[in-house]
Design brief:
Blueprint: E1 4-7, H1 24-30, E2 36-37, E3 51-54, E4 65-67, H2 77-85, H3 92-118, E5 124-129, E6 134-142, E7 147-161, H4 163-169, E8 181-182, E9 189-202, E10 209-219, E11 231-241, H5 247-262, H6 268-279, E12 281-282, E13 287-288, E14 293-299, H7 304-316, H8 318-329, H9 336-355, H10 358-365, H11 370-373, H12 394-403
Antiparallel strand pairs: 1-3, 2-8, 4-5, 5-6, 6-7, 7-9, 9-10, 10-11, 11-14, 12-13
Helix pairs in contact: 1-10, 2-3, 3-7, 3-8, 5-8
Amino acid sequence: MQWCASIVSPSPSSSTFIPSFSSSHYANAILQTKLRWKPNQQAKLPHPHLFQFKVKAAISIEKETPESHRPDTFLKQSESIDAASSSSSSSSSSVRARFEKMIREAQDSVCAAIESADGGASFKEDVWSRPGGGGGISRVLQDGAVWEKAGVNVSVVYGVMPPDAYRAANPTSSSSSSDAAPLPVPVPVPFFAAGISSVLHPKNPFAPTLHFNYRYFETDTPKDAPGAPRRWWFGGGTDLTPAYIFEEDVKHFHSTQKRACDKFDPSFYPRFKKWCDDYFYIKHRGERRGLGGIFFDDLNDYDQEMLLSFATECANSVIPAYIPIIEKRKDLPFTDQHKAWQQLRRGRYVEFNLVYDRGTTFGLKTGGRIESILVSLPLTARWEYDHKPEEGSEEWKLLDACINPKEWI
């Protein structure tokens, strides 16, 4: 008989209270967690008072609570105190606290740069908390002078991941290893996830869309329980999605990413550039979503302090990589034809996010906060039947670069 777990939510004070998955950027990190067991091992079942087992799976998701003000930190009070007094800069509490500080500062600086470039519009802010632990800040600017839609979100959440979340995140994991199989009834796994996620859609078709996200993730499992061992990792990236190619802009963008990478390891840029090209691939179209950048995930094979500094450097590179391009292109005159092509490329953006993006699809499957999950989508997009740009045209050049990734620097 095949067992599936249905969570019975205990009281909010219980350590097994179930988290909600409110934003896609940390759901990406969850997807990297693998609960594995050897076929000849006997799985230990969770305590019967906490779980009931049914053939039909179900995921219990707690809802967010709107808050009227921003807290100084979303961390537990004891963790904040531990981080402030810790003598070890790489302690778990310290890394969590410093990563939260970094993403909140990055949110402030990126939003300020976006508002300045727009020249009038401002972000709407929603603050939320979750009973299981943590919360987030969502900021969205719509219908500005420059920006059609700009979203910059942060979240810091922790609690226990339900077994069904693993199954939803890893539907084909049984084929990824020849000597291991998914744990039939995995125990819930304590986790911590923090990240910043942003998508910026300008109105002018000559101004490119930008996406970036950076995140930190930890899991832990009691030593006598099957499942994921204690581990941590970083993930994220920054990528450019224009409708028209200005080679000097693309070179500037990639050069800025390379400089950030080269400060830490010269192998990072070529490695993460290829990873980005491979990840943002629309399989049913045979083309990439845009012109790439850098992307990495499940990164823990370097010193933790080094990777924290690397993620910080990458987040700080967003403004110098992107805003100069916006300033040059935001006021260029354009035609209805230019706008129609931009909308077709926005359609590709929607297709990738709804069909292939792991964070988006996971969030939709598990009933997360829909406004945060879909904030990456543009206000408008377009689909035309069997549209083919004329060979040699500017539109064709963009499509060719999406089909055949180039080395820009």
